[in-house]
Amino acid sequence: MDFYRSEKEEVSNIILEETKDFKQLIEKCKKQDPDALEKFFEIYSIEIYNFPMKVFHFTEEEAGDFFLFAFERLRDGKRFRSFRGDSSFRTWFYSVLRNLVLDWIRANKKSKVIQFYNYASIAEIEKQILKELESNDKIEAKLVQDLFYRIIENFDEDSRIIFKLVYIFYLNLDEDDIHILKTKYKKTGSEILQFISEIKEYLTNKNIKLKQKSERLHRLYLKLLKLKEKEQELKELKENQDPEWEEKYIQISEELTEIQAIINKKTKNRDKMIEHTNPDATVLRTPFQKIAEFLEISTPTVSSIYKKAENQIKNSQELKKIFIN
To answer: What distance in Å separates the CA atoms of residue 61 and residue 68, rounded to the nearest whole number?
Structure first.
């Protein structure tokens, strides 16, 4: 997908907001006209979805959750009554979205306490599944794998297609999936093959970068370990050094100061690398925007369908039993 599409749409919407037709649309929204509200969401769904990612650095999953949260609170039209035209519509709208994001954050923090058997996100469940698949107990791992696939196959068509495309790095499309893409989404075999090839190449490159970062972090830890050993050695030498050997004492002190400076620098580099490492990024997922472009549907729609599939996995009693036990 063209990742700048949302910016182009935003510019287009800014121009639209100056027109007479748009002002009439907002007046109808104030009166809770269902057709006007439907039109409004058709125009602004992408902006609502992208807002928390641009301003609050939400993940795609969090943005999807927020979109549903915002939609529920905007769809009745009542909030439009607070727009009186004292400022531009965009200033007012962004203020509304900002307040909704803060409401969502507060609500989300409360719900964290009762989240699915102590797993904070689907990424942690995925890691547990992948860990189980790497278990030495091949029979049990195979059971987990079969169960996971069985749950996915019981999804409705849209949920199964979206979920498999999100995790195409790990999952394969079967004949039924290909048939749905051809008939429901009007994709040719070559278009499907090209999309899958491009996404797998994109995710493979991402995986290589993640591994390279992990290796750099590992090497950094090893260097720090050696430097700390050297630091300890110099400290002991300094303590045991006869002060009368002033030249040697100064030399050790200078070397120790230099080593400690290097340790501090590398420790900061290590902390910075860890700080900028997103734990969820270790699971390779196709961006919702890319899937939206391929299927020719909106990004919020992809997010909503994925969330539905995700909840089905979270609510699987069979998977709960495996991971709790």
So the answer is: 11
pLDDT tens-digit readout, 254-269: 888 888 888 888 878 7
Task: Identify the residue with better confidence: 215 or 235.
Answer: 235
Instruction: Convert the pLDDT of each residue in 34-69 to its tens digit.
Output: 999 988 988 888 888 888 887 777 777 788 888 888
Contact 254, 205 (CB under 8 A): no
What number of other Cβ atoms are within 10 A of residue 81's Cβ? 11
Looking up tokens 């058997």 gives: 117
Residues 6+ apart with CB under 8 A from 29: 36, 37, 40, 77, 80
Tokens of 118: 């102590």
CA dist 238 and 232 (Å) reads 10
**Beta carbons of 126 and 145 less than 8 angstroms apart:** no
Long-range contacts of 15-19 (CB under 8 A, 24+ apart): 16/43, 17/88, 17/89, 17/90
pLDDT of 132 > 70? The answer is: no
Instruction: Classify residue 158 by burial, with Cβ atoms within 10 Å: 0-12, 13-18, 19+.
Output: buried
Q: Do 81 and 5 touch, CB atoms closer than 8 A?
A: no
Q: What is residue 302's DSSP assignment?
A: H
Q: Report d(CA 305, CA 158) in Å as an integer.
A: 7
225 class by beta-carbon count within 10 Å (0-12 exposed, 13-18 middle, 19+ buried): exposed
The length of the chain in residues reads: 325
User: What's the whole-number average pLDDT of the chain?
Assistant: 76
Closest CA to 52 of 124, 100, 110: 100
274 contacts: CB under 8 Å, gap ≥ 6: 217
DSSP category for residue 316: -
Please, how many CA atoms are within 13 Å of residue 156, restricted to the half-sphere of its CB? 6
Task: Determine the Cα–Cα distance for residues 202 and 34; give it in Å rounded to an integer.
Answer: 41
- Position 88 confidence tier, pLDDT thresholds 50, 70, 90: confident
